[in-house]
């Protein structure tokens, strides 16, 4: 069968499967939004909305699958937008939308604003004006459960393909902004992708919406064979198998066209004459010979591949052993290219003048500097008598130089000159979280939206350290003063001098030297020196509760009384008055989000480390309302003296919760797990 026929039949099969599944589709997800409130039965708004939704059953299908309709005036005006996937035919498009209208009204009764997504269409309605408005929330993402094998090759192909499709879709017409395409990852694997915007967006708006969604790939779908991010105004999906219908409007593949199939010298020449019996026997003989040669060649190929694979694995092991040995000899060697001259840094900081001093920590002062090219930097000058010696210094350089994440501070270089030891970081203009959170004036700037953003960023940064970086890293000193805030108030975890490096398969360790900050330390670490990713989770839980209440855990005040933050939070949680914990400034905060954060914080500070969630679960809990949270047990408590130098450990005697944690949300037919961030 030639390539044109193969293309025709594969397209026909996909089209047939699409038509079979449209009617029986289950929704991917939906949101019943409370931003516009509810409508009453038999109200004008309900009449306008019903008029619009019922019109789809009698609507004339268009060939671009986008519908925008309005009915009514002022606050009773109903606005409806529906969009079908660009590869779905007009009949199936309307079938999907009609299913959506019924399902959404059933799932969100009396809500003025709601949105639902199916695999082939999206429907949203509201009393707000939404036509021509680029909106990124509410949104959700999904991922394929299978991991890729060649991560670098896959990411390169994915980046190139998504950028190409984004440009192609954005430049579409006012009727259609949709693109599909493919790109080879390896000789045996091809990547397929689809991107789409609602066509009421301008080209820059569509491009921006898709860019923001694509930037979310490392969070939602890193190293996965497939994934998607779905937002009201745009969406994308990628898989290693083609999931869309090939149409005449498809974006061309980024792969090079295959070379023409060579004509075999054994093939008989074309002839209009009727072949004789002798010709048939000759052709049969030739066929047998060809098959025999092919089988022998295949067997030789398989044997050769096995030998090559064995030798490659053996060679890789030798290289790995050599590389590990080299790293053990000098772990800081890989960072030598980051070394600065002391004179350069002294000039940048105006000889470490007090005017450039940003703060003073336990291990030295931090200065702002400006390099000759105009770039701002932050310089940590370690004091010669600090507790952090050469070992900690090399540890921080070695660790941080390898870390690349938006929620981790970026190490730009270091300097060693006699007794001088300097660390050069990116300059983060808004200083540290504690300078906002615990300041009675600046705290007002941290509204709920900013605090929730900070909580989520810290969680993602810790998740990267624990699971997604090259090596598992336990921070051991997570606290408000070690969270820096950039110009957009994005959090960046800093200060890795106390961090411990673990093998990827190592879950815990022990030390005789306890470092960190009392109040944030997990009980097993403070008392026995046992540290793990769960000790970082404990610190995160304390920090989360501090962000909610706006007070330090070591000086938590209720009226005139000084109490322990964890015990106060737990007591109010049991009494059903958990909102007493919340900073009064956050009066306009979402009650649901705040209560969920208190719940997560208490789960993180449980005495039994095994009961605490890992950071992957924490991130999922923060971003998905479909995950049921287990009941927390009583937390571990620290009681401090006035000098904060003596520490008394109180055993809570808590029992384990009998409720198990729900790990994942629903799974679709192609093993794509679903989660969704809260509506914003």
Number of helices: 16
The residue ranges in which pLDDT falls below 50 over 5 or more consecutive positions are: 1-24, 255-284, 320-335, 503-514, 638-680
Mean pLDDT metric: 77
Query: What's the CATH superfamily of the largest domain, by name?
Result: Transferase(Phosphotransferase) domain 1
Total E-strand runs? 26
Strand order of the largest sheet: 7-8-10-9-6-26
Structural notes for this entry:
It is a single chain. The protein is α+β, with helices and mostly antiparallel strands. It has four domains: 11-126, Gnk2 domain, C-X8-C-X2-C motif (Killer Toxin P4, Chain A), CATH 3.30.430; 140-239, Killer Toxin P4, Chain A, CATH 3.30.430.20; 336-426, Phosphorylase Kinase, domain 1 (2-Layer Sandwich), CATH 3.30.200; 433-655, Orthogonal Bundle (Transferase(Phosphotransferase), domain 1). The chain contains 16 helices and 26 strands. The protein is globular, with a radius of gyration of 30 Å. 38% of the residues are buried. The model is unreliable at 1-24, 255-284, 320-335, 503-514 and 638-680 (pLDDT under 50).
Short description:
The chain has 680 residues and is of the alpha+beta class.
């Amino acid at each position: 069968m030639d390539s044109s026929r193969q293309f025709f039949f594969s397209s026909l099969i996909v089209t047939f499967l699409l038509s079979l599944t449209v009617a029986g589709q289950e929704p991917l997800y939906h949101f019943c939004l409370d931003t516009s409130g509810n409508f009453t039965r038999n109200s004008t708004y309900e009449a306008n909305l019903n008029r619009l939704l019922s019109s789809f059953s009698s609507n004339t299908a268009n060939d671009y699958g986008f519908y925008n309709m309005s009915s009514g005036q002022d606050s009773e005006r109903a606005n409806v937008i529906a969009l079908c996937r660009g590869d779905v035919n007009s009949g199936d498009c309307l079938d999907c939308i009609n299913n959506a209208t019924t399902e959404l009204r059933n799932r969100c009764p009396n809500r003025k604003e709601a949105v639902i997504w199916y695999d082939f269409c999206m429907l949203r309605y509201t009393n707000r004006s939404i036509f021509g408005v680029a909106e990124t929330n509410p949104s959700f993402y999904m991922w394929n459960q299978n991991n890729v094998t060649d991560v670098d090759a896959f990411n390169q192909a994915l980046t190139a393909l998504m950028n190409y499709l984004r440009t192609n879709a954005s430049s579409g017409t006012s009727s259609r902004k949709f693109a599909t395409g493919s790109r080879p990852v390896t000789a045996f694997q091809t990547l397929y992708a689809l991107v789409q915007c609602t066509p009421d967006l301008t080209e820059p708006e569509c491009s921006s919406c898709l860019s923001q969604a694509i930037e979310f790939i490392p969070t939602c779908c890193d190293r996965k064979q497939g994934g998607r991010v779905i937002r009201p105004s745009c969406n994308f999906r990628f898989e290693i198998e083609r999931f869309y219908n090939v149409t005449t409007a498809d974006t061309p593949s980024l792969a090079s066209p295959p070379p023409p199939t060579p004509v075999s010298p054994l093939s008989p020449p074309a002839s209009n004459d009727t072949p004789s019996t002798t010709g048939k026997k000759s052709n049969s003989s030739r066929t047998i010979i060809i098959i025999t040669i092919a089988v022998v060649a295949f067997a030789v190929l398989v044997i050769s591949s096995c030998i090559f694979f064995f030798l490659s694995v053996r060679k890789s092991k030798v290289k790995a052993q050599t590389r590990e040995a080299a790293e053990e000899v000098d772990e800081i060697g890989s960072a030598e290219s980051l070394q600065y001259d002391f004179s350069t840094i002294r000039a940048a900081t105006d000889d470490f003048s007090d005017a450039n001093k940003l703060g003073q920590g336990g291990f030295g002062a931090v200065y702002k500097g400006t390099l000759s090219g105009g770039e701002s930097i932050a310089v940590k000058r370690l004091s010669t008598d600090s507790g952090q010696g050469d070992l900690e210094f090399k540890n921080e350089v070695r660790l941080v130089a390898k870390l690349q994440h938006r929620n981790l501070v970026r190490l730009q270089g270091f300097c060693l000159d006699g007794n001088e030891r300097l660390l050069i970081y990116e300059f983060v203009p808004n200083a540290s979280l504690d300078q906002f959170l615990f300041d009675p004036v600046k705290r007002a700037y941290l509204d709920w939206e900013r605090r929730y953003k900070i909580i989520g960023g810290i969680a993602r940064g810790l998740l990267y350290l624990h699971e997604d970086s090259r090596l598992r890293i336990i921070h051991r000193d997570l606290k408000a003063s070690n969270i820096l805030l950039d110009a957009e108030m994005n959090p960046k975890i800093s200060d890795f001098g106390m961090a411990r490096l673990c093998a990827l398969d190592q879950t815990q360790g022990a030390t005789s030297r306890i470092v960190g900050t009392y109040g944030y330390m997990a009980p097993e670490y403070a008392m026995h020196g046992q540290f793990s990713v769960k000790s970082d989770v404990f610190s995160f839980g304390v920090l989360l509760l501090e962000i909610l209440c706006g007070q330090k855990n070591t000086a938590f005040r209720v009226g005139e009384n000084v109490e322990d933050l964890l015990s106060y939070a737990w007591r109010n949680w049991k009494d059903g008055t958990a909102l007493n914990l919340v900073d009064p400034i956050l009066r306009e905060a979402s009650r649901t989000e705040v209560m969920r954060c208190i719940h997560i914080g208490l789960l993180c500070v449980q005495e039994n480390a095994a009961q605490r969630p890992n950071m992957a679960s924490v991130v999922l809990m923060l971003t998905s309302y479909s995950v049921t949270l287990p009941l927390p047990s009583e937390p571990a408590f620290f009681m401090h003296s006035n000098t904060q130098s003596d520490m008394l450990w109180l055993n809570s005697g808590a029992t384990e919760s009998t409720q198990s944690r729900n790990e994942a949300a629903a799974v679709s037919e192609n093993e794509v797990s679903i989660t969704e961030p809260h509506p914003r």
